[in-house]
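Q: Give me a protein?
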Amino acid sequence: MDDAKFLEVSAKHPIVEGHVYKYGTAGFRMKADLLPGVSFRVGLIAGLRSRKLNGQAIGVMVTASHNPAPDNGVKIVDPMGEMLEQDWEAHATLLVNAPTHEELLETYKKLASQLKIDLNSPGRVVYGRDTRPSGHSLVTALADALEVTGIEYTDYKILTTPQLHYLTRCVNTEGTPKAYGEVSEAGYYKKLSEAFVRALRGRKVQGQLIVDCANGVGGPKLAELLKFIPKDVTGFNVKIVNDDVLRPEVLNLDCGADFVKTKQRAPPTLKPAPEARCCSLDGDADRLIYYWADPDSGFFMLDGDRISSLNASFISDLVRSAGLQEDLRIGVVQTAYANGASTTYIEKNLQLPVVFTQTVGDAISDMLMVEVILAHKAWSLQDWATTYTDLPNRLVRVEVANKDIFETTDAERRLSHPPGAQDEIDQCVRKYTTARSFARASGTENACRVYAEAATRHEADELATKVASIIKQYGS
């Protein structure tokens, strides 16, 4: 590597002086104008990661998911499509915060030496971006880093986040017995559409599905997928709404999965007929939520907990009917935000173990799975909703001086730092029936999120307020 060339290229992509960057669950995510220098440096760390893993391809996705249009983000994907190994988040944070171009070069070389990485060995990075206008300059900075450090790269242009995860895995398994699929965007559509037809086993989807695409990348990509799904065979009738990707300012604006989840209502542009089957994706199509609305029963939401419970119930029924319950073990993976009623339903009614973790989801493939199960069960959304009743819950955002002092353990369900905060939360929770509450730092803004649930709406609200007050006290 030519050091002078490195410094020359790095100088084109400076970081913003005085800003401290930290790699979180969403990678580096913030206002887009703070990110060009970050994107260059993420290219450096992605190249190192690939070289450390003997040249396996590493993915980089440029997206800010459900955030407003002026934001963007850069995150790294490991070879099998999973999130970046946690130990490497610290390396990414260290490299990105190097204050000068000379110190950046020195830190880069030190990291390579410390991790025993040969800077002359081959490396490969694949990357994509969502529809945000700022994405173009960010992938330009990324490519400059890969070019100057001798890393082979492929630009897959505009993708959903799950498509980039898919392609990363496909590149690394191509030509092996564990080949995941065709290494192309079309390969993704073929894999999903063929699985959808196979899983329906001759049954047809009943009624129209209205899909709100958050005016994000999911709109054109879902439209492309539908070209691969034979409507005459599947009965899959989809109406795509909120698919305006030409006006950046409307991305995630009063629409999308995050809007529906937080506002507890359908996007105002939808105006669905009573009991119409609706779902919403988020801006990069890795979140999904189902719902319906009618004048009598009002709005009812079927979120990720409901979707995982539906999937678990269906798969466990199939395993039992095939007589394979002694040979196959089924478990359900949830995050800390899972409603306690869903965990109880899965453990007691379905008799399945629950594991708490975090990973990436694919809203479009999850949507197809839901449609398959509803077709097999001949269920409406209303039938699905009767499986259990959610515990009342509340999610509160608390602004703090420095979110990074709040560190978690136990799959983000307990605070390890600052000392004493978790003890106070525990004391509050003990005062309520079937209650729990936790707080964690936001991955995208200088704030903490407090989740609380309890036996009644009043208790859930009260508990959330008390825990928010504790966080405010420790965070001020």
Q: What stands out?
A: The radius of gyration is 23 Å.
